[in-house]
Design a protein that fits this description.
single chain; D-amino Acid Aminotransferase, Chain A, domain 1; 2 domains; nine-stranded mixed β-sheet; 8 helices; about 25% strand; globular; binds 3-[O-phosphonopyridoxyl]--amino-benzoic acid
Length: about 290
């Protein structure tokens, strides 16, 4: 039997899981989403993801037609129905069906979609050898346009950035904000290590406040590694001792080259490796607590 997808209260076969072409999620990118992981049957940082989803929705005046508890249960049920324990979970809330024209008040029925699927990791070698990335022309969305804290269905800047990276022959892009400071990658936050201190752009740099980013900051603190949030320029990246990215999909992944410049000695740094280990322990430990 194939995968089942939750669509507004019903479990649909993957190939029959669909929403209307009149849904404003499709017509205008009007909606919000979350990407979550389950490790060994336990949803990692579930409440943080649900909180962020509800905040994203509130930010665009979209009412999620479920309580937080109901959504949590719906996610658990979708995992159970699919018998998945290590999974990628994609929750999408769309504005729902409306008339043509932007007006969201014509959409009385927001839709809830929960996809649970296997996870597509970066190849193992990339964790061992590190990634090459570049800074790209497309800027991260400015606060003045749309808060980058909203995980909305509008990812076009990030997609443009991804295209720019791919066209240059690398897998990931570093996006700057409209002032030229480093923001983040297309679906990951960025950290550097300089003189033993972890440095990551602050929320004001125009980032999505990643849940993995927070987990890594907490792990660093527990391990007595100094961490600070500070604006970074491309120059700061080029002279960094180490660099890595964090995100639900990538977890913690080393970066060894930025804009053709080698970072540190060109291999994943020791602090990066330490944090990658700690992160793996954290997701393992997470999995032994009953859900
Ligand atoms: N920045 C951006 C712009 C993101 O979209 C992150 C940082 C990392 O945040 P978390 O909370 O995951 O540590 C993201 C996360 C997907 C997908 O399906 C996207 C993300 C995460 C997982 C899956 O495209 N974005």
């Amino acid at each position: 039997m194939g995968l089942k997808v939750y669509v507004s209260g019903e479990m649909k076969e993957k190939k029959h899981a669909s929403i209307s072409v009149y849904d404003h999620g499709l017509l205008y990118g009007d909606g919000v989403f979350e990407g979550i992981r389950a490790y060994n049957g336990k949803i990692f940082r579930c409440m943080e993801h649900i909180e962020r989803l509800f905040n994203s929705a509130k930010g665009i005046a979209l009412e999620i037609p479920l309580t937080k508890k109901e959504l949590h249960e719906a996610i658990e049920n979708t995992l159970d129905v699919n018998n998945l324990s290590d999974a990628y979970i994609r929750v999408v809330i769309t504005r729902g069906v409306g008339t043509l024209g932007l007006d969201p008040t014509k959409c009385p029925d927001p839709q809830v979609i929960i996809i649970t699927d296997s996870i597509c990791l970066y190849p193992k070698e990339m964790y061992e050898n590190g990634l090459e990335v570049i800074t790209v022309p497309t800027a991260r969305t400015a606060h003045s346009a749309l808060s980058p804290k909203i995980k909305s269905l509008n990812y076009l800047n990030n997609i443009m950035a991804k295209i720019e990276a791919k066209q240059a022959g690398v897998v990931e892009a570093i996006m700057l904000n409209s002032e030229g400071y480093v923001a983040e990658c297309t679906g990951d936050n960025l950290f550097i290590v300089k003189n033993g201190t972890l440095v990551t752009p602050p929320p004001e740099a125009g980032i999505l406040e990643g849940i993995t980013r927070q987990v890594v900051m907490d792990l660093a603190q527990t391990a007595s590694l100094p961490v600070k949030e500070q604006q970074l320029t491309r120059f700061d990246l080029y002279i960094a001792d180490e660099c890595f990215l964090t995100g639900t999909a990538a977890e913690v992944i080393p970066v060894v080259k930025i804009d053709s410049r080698q970072i540190g000695d060109g291999t994943p740094g020791n602090i990066t490796k330490q944090l990658l280990d700690l992160f793996r322990q954290e997701t393992c430990y997470n999995s032994v607590i009953d859900r």
